[in-house]
């Protein structure tokens, strides 16, 4: 007869493998995503009048007014639009410096 204890070792190995996969998934996918979200949140909270920004739709503009959840952008002379803060993705002055 075969020993009955071998099944438990296989279950423990499977559990450890599953645990290792979860840890790897967290380290390579979830944690970097959380860091990126924190950076974006900090960027959006630090916006001020005069900043040049880029929206999700690809519109470049200069901030003329800031409310709790919206920002007014001047995209051309005397042309202003309101966008939600979540629609602003980047500081366009930083992009211009890279070019």
Short description:
The chain has 99 residues and is α+β, with helices and mostly antiparallel strands. Helices cover 47% and strands 28% of the residues.
Topology, pairings included?
Elements: H1 6-45, E1 52-55, E2 60-66, E3 70-76, E4 79-84, E5 88-91, H2 92-98
Antiparallel strand pairs: 1-2, 1-5, 2-3, 3-4
- In N-to-C order, the SSE pattern is HEEEEEH
CATH structural class of the largest domain? Mainly Beta
Terminal-residue CA separation:
74 Å
Number of H- or I-type helical stretches: 2
CATH topology of the largest domain, which one?
Answer: SH3 type barrels
Oligomer: single chain
Strand content: 25-35%
Main sheet specs: 5 strands, antiparallel
**C-alpha-based Rg, rounded:** 24 Å
| Tally of strands | 5
Low-confidence stretches: none
Sheet with the most strands: spatial strand order: 4-3-2-1-5
Query: Which CATH architecture of the largest domain is right?
Result: Roll
Structural class label: alpha+beta
**Mean pLDDT, as a whole number?**
88
Global geometry: elongated
How many domains, in number, for the residues?
2
Give the proportion of residues in helices.
40-55%
């Amino acid at each position: 007869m075969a020993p009955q204890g071998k099944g438990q070792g296989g279950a423990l190995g499977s559990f450890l493998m599953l645990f290792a996969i979860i840890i790897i998934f967290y380290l390579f996918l979830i944690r970097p995503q959380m860091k990126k979200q924190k950076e974006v949140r900090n960027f959006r909270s630090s916006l001020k009048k005069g900043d040049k920004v880029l929206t999700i739709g690809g519109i470049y503009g200069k901030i003329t007014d800031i409310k709790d959840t919206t920002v007014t952008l001047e995209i051309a002379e005397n042309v202003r639009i309101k966008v939600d803060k979540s629609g602003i993705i980047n500081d366009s002055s930083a992009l211009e410096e890279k070019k």
